[in-house]
Amino acid sequence: MEALRVSPVHSLGIPSKLDKTHFRKLFCSNFNSIPGSSFSFDQRNLSKSKLFTAISSSVSTELADPFQPELETQTPDGKFDWYAHWYPVMPVCDLDKRRPHAKKVMGLDVVVWWDRNESAWKVFDDSCPHRLAPLSEGRIDQWGRLQCVYHGWCFNGSGDCKFIPQAPPDGPPVHTFKKACAAVYPSTVQNDIVWFWPNSDPQYKDIILKKKPPHIAELGDPSFTKIMGNRDIPYGYEVLIENLMDPAHVPYAHYGIMRTPLRKNKADREGGAPLELIVENSHTNGFTGRRDYGINKFFAPCVFYSSLPIGQNQDIEADSSTGAKKESSVQKRMVLVFICIPVSPGKSRLIWTFPRNFGIWVDKIVPRWMFHVGQNLILDSDLYLLHVEERKIMDVGPAQWQKACFVPTKSDALVVAFRKWLNKYAGGQVDWRGKFSGALPPTPPKEQLMDRYWTHVVNCSSCNAAYNSLNVLEVVLQVISVALIGIVAATKQSLTSLVAKTAIVSTAVLCFAASKWLAHFIHKVFHFHDYDHAFR
């Protein structure tokens, strides 16, 4: 039953008032982790000195800024190349093999599609070489080729143009010309996520042989669950990552909807407390952090990984040779994996998964969309805060973050470490290579900003199926209600008893009320759920 205590399943029953429901979530309330994780982390170019990124929570405001100038200077470690790393696109479970999918990563418009001839996911530049129409609006033809629906040009998995309908069959083979080929990005599937290399130059065709995406062993271990989710976020990559690295905001920004440790002596209602976070081994490819007995890892540019010790299972087993009983201990573990994808200025994408090695049966019987209900509520609860925060940071300039923000306690250690890494190795912000002016998109109305349908539901196979099914159920309930009333009206009084009429009318009223409640539920879960911190 431990799985129920740490998962949102037990609180996902259909409520009478959705906004009163306290959804549990597999997001961690305190980013504890345990040492010895199985996350592949490139340790080349490690900094020899440990980086302690925050000072005591009890210090005076007269102390110096935690950003120390000597740590901001260039080092022999080199600079971080934003275009020399693999980037995740989408979880395989949320990609439909029957159609191409449009995505934006690092400012690049790409199309992801399933090549059944090679049995592999392919990532192309989302532009037909003919007249630059988006290939993502096309289709997969009967021969398994990607077809541009503007003029019918067809491409195989290598990007070669295989058919141009307008070219005469007895004329020159223009479809074989190099300019007729689609631009192909190297791609692979790692941990059930499609990754691509953001450079279509042919010299990177076999880059997978030299460098692979980060491997998370728990996602390939059958003893762990691995339910995934994804959502487009209306604030940038930098703010997304630092928010996920910040455990101190959880009791406040997610009050009442996220489990936090019970404390005997609480200073306030929410129960915030000093946190001991230390960051070490900062280098070009990320850094490692410790909290008490655990380790957190940032694998640049996208992955933040942490483990949760849950306890131990004590199992009694019989020795087959002697018949004596022996006790075996299995460490219960829950891993938090956040994959943060730069999309464009002011926009990012989050892929999350929380594998655990206990309570696996829960994920087998509970639909994935039910987990996403609580997880989306968590994302919504601080979404507006972070959207506004990002604009304030842009007003002062990202390079001035350490001067504009006062971060005197150790609870901000990971956030400070990320900003230091960004300034020291990565140029202070994502390298968009001049594709954008640097200005953030305008802030839309709150209902549009916090919309779930276009940012999650249409991109999630489970939530999309649930959304369609519940809409059908709503219509069915309305039809039943009207039909029952019609039956009562059309039936002669002498043929129907008063009790039967009362039962039919009552059923009709209940069906109509259920359809109205279901419409409200669908709107709250799949479209828009406002979050007012003042009344939490």
What are the main properties of this structure?
disordered N terminus; Naphthalene 1,2-dioxygenase Alpha Subunit, Chain A, domain 1; 11 helices; 536 residues; 3 domains; Rieske Iron-sulfur Protein; transmembrane helix; alpha+beta; 24% helix; 7-stranded antiparallel β-sheet; 4-stranded antiparallel β-sheet
Q: What would you note in describing this structure?
A:
It is built from eleven helices and 18 strands. 24% of the residues lie in helices and 21% in strands. The strands form four sheets. It has a seven-stranded antiparallel beta sheet. Strands 2-3-4-9 form a four-stranded antiparallel beta sheet, with no helix packed on it. The protein has a four-stranded antiparallel beta sheet with strand order 5-6-7-8, with no helix packed on it. The protein has helices spanning 2-6, 237-244, 250-253, 360-365, 368-381, 383-396, 401-404, 413-425, 446-449, 461-490, 498-526, and strands at 87-91, 101-105, 108-115, 120-125, 139-140, 146-147, 154-155, 161-163, 184-185, 187-190, 193-196, 228-233, 278-283, 286-291, 294-299, 303-318, 325-344, 347-353. Helix 10 (461-490) packs antiparallel against helix 11. The protein has three domains: 87-209, 3-layer Sandwich (Rieske Iron-sulfur Protein), CATH 2.102.10; 217-311 and 331-445, Naphthalene 1,2-dioxygenase Alpha Subunit, Chain A, domain 1, CATH 3.90.380.10; 464-535. It is an alpha+beta fold and 536 residues long. The two termini are 29 Å apart. One of its GO terms (molecular function) is metal ion binding. It is found in: Membrane; Plastid, Chloroplast. It comes from Trema orientale (Charcoal tree).
